[in-house]
Amino acid sequence: MHATRIGAAATGRLRRQRVRVPWHLVASPHYSKTAVGLYIKIAALAQRPEGCTAGVAVLAEMIGTSVSGVERAITQLRRPDPDGPPPWLHTTRQTLPGGRGTTAERHVRRPAPGDPYVWVSVAAVDTLPLHLVRLYAALAYAGDRRMPVAEHELARLLNVSTRTAGTYVDDLESTGWITVHRRAGDRGRHIYQVHRLPGENSPDPTPGPGASSATSDGSGSAPADGSLAIKEDHRTDPLEKTAQVDGGIRRRRPQVVGGRAVDKDEHPHPGSVSGAAFPPVVLRVLAPVADLLPQLTDWEVRRITRAVLTQLAEYATPARLSARLATRRTAAGPITRPAGWLLSAGLPRWGCGVLACESGRLWREWAPGTAERCQVCERRPFVAEQPPPPAPGTAPPVNTPAPPSPLPPLPRPDLPCGDCGIHTPDTRCPLCSEIRRAEAAITAAVDAALALADTDDPRVLAVARTAVEARMRADLLAQRPDPRHATALTMALAMRLAAETRAQQARAEALEALAQSPRAAAEARQAAATALRFPTSGGGLTAARAEARRAAAEARLAWARDELAHRMSHRRERPVA
Questions:
Q1: DSSP classification of residue 95
Q2: Distance CA 186, CA 257 (A)
Q3: How many separate domains does the chain show?
Q4: What CA–CA distances, in Å, run from 422 to 378, 446, 486, 488, 490?
Q5: Is 344:401 a contact under the CB 8 Å cutoff?
Q6: Helical H runs in 286-348?
Q7: Exposure b/e, 474-501, CB count within 10 A at least 16 = b
Q8: What CA–CA distance (Å, rounded) separates 385 from 328?
Q9: Which class for 559: exposed (0-12), middle (13-18), buried (19 or more C-beta within 10 A)?
Q10: In-domain check, residue 258
């Protein structure tokens, strides 16, 4: 099967379709290689108008594995992630009460905004073994973010040895999906060029003689033995090179790295480093401080590059980091230590736990100059992450970078509120904001209450909505504070909190009622049977039964949530014909 699927790349019938795969799914040890390939295939099939309706046997044939392997992967994807995220796969049963019906419809959960992801070609799942699909996704993720990769890091991701990871790299390169530029990166690392299709816009990927990643002595694989230099024997040096004349220093032999002689003078000395040592994306980020770059050493260049690439991979964009550096460079004084200022004051993010917070201001990629204030920072005193000031009567230490200052507030004229017309620095005054949030909570509570209705008639639902909303508003008005002892803003805030509490209660009641329905019971039985058939724990029959009960409860709750969301979205207030 391996040779047949690999050979399919030469037929010219590969599709150019790509899907977004969560990086957490690729890197997490809780998901097998079959789960990663199955997620990619289901995500691709779900883009069809009819969705993904392929059965387990068809999916097993598509990704080149057994039926039992696909069933285990479906179980992994349908369970809540051990690290916190919700399940990655949802299944909608389409079986009639008599046992007849159509194949279940499956759809995957897309990465949430801000979550790291990687684009993976669907043709890779059609042509590659599953362990190479995971390796391809990891190399594509590193290539998109220009992150250097070592073979021991790939081995830790794939849970194999370093030698096996090198063999996998050679196998993947032989298929044409990647091109390996061996020993062309920093410290003798390989540079991996990932292709969207095999051999597309790339040189001949066939490795030359002696260019295999799986070396005989493991040189350059592990961090402990990654040096490519050898120990010199000074007794074999020529006489004219060992002789010391007027205290001169003997010239060392050039070091050979990847077939190219690297002389010591090629590496710039401190004070002569240019911006060419940075990757292009890092140079774009450091454009506001370009005058500081020539003063950096090689070690400082690597530290700053790692700090920038880490933030770009986790949450930031080049525009955001450039704006941060420009603002802090303007507020800073004379900089005597460029590397220390960049690593401790220029590049770190200051703010609360909200990733969009920049020193009390929310960064919006679509509107960088709006300077919206962070509500979390407004609830507590904002303290910038600065070093403590020197004690009175003591001088600051020498060559200490200037203490960073928070982002200055951007000037913004007062605008009229969109509801009441009162001029306010925000688009809506606090009173109108609380009123709108209270109205939204009331609407959510009414939608949750109407989700339990036994009819879809718009006229009946409209009458029921009016009655439920009137009763709910009367209850909320009865709970409001006394107008003689509260301001309008305080009353609006109390109404909003009461409405949100009522919405949560209505949602909990609806979920409890839907979880007792026959369809929820059928989902629970199916999940329990699957858990008993493929137990993941080795604790015997008692542990398997406990796992089956947990799987049944999770399946019942998941179906109730999906059904409630479906009913709330389809039973909202619509015009009656």
A1: B
A2: 10
A3: 3
A4: 22, 31, 21, 15, 18
A5: yes
A6: 298-314, 318-331, 338-341
A7: eebeeeeeeeeeeeeeebbbbbbebbbe
A8: 13
A9: buried
A10: no
Query: Based on the domain organization, do 357 and 434 belong to the same domain?
Result: no
Same-domain check for residues 365 and 453? no
> Given this model, what pLDDT does residue 134 score?
93
Based on the domain organization, do 43 and 184 belong to the same domain? yes
Q: Which of 169, 194, 219 is the last residue of a domain?
A: 194
Q: Is 512 exposed, middle or buried, given 0-12, 13-18 or 19+ CB atoms closer than 10 A? A: exposed
Residue 437: give the domain boundaries: 428-577
Both 445 and 368 in a single domain? no
181-235: per-residue pLDDT in tens? 888 777 778 889 999 888 776 444 344 444 455 544 444 444 444 444 444 444 4
Residues β-bridged to residue 91: 106
In a domain, 406, yes or no: no
- For residue 184, being part of any structural domain is answered with yes
Does 101 fall in a domain?
yes
Report the pLDDT value the prediction gives residue 372, as an integer from 0 to 100. Answer: 76
**Residue stretches of the chain with pLDDT short of 70:** 1-14, 84, 94-101, 201-277, 366-371, 379-428, 485-486, 536-539, 571-577
Question: Are 23 and 96 part of one and the same domain?
Answer: yes
Claim to verify: residue 34 and residue 163 sit in the same structural domain: yes
440 and 350 share one domain = no
- Pair 493, 362 in one domain: no
- Residue at which a domain ends, from 159, 194, 229: 194
Residue 250 neighbours by CB distance under 10 Å: 10
536 CB contacts (<8 Å, ≥6 apart)?
75, 547
Q: What pLDDT score does 418 carry?
A: 59
pTM: 0.39
Q: How far is CA 79 from CA 56, 72, 272, 555, in A?
A: 17, 11, 55, 8
Query: Measured at the alpha carbon of residue 470, what is the angle toward residues 466 and 473, in degrees to the nearest 5?
Result: 140
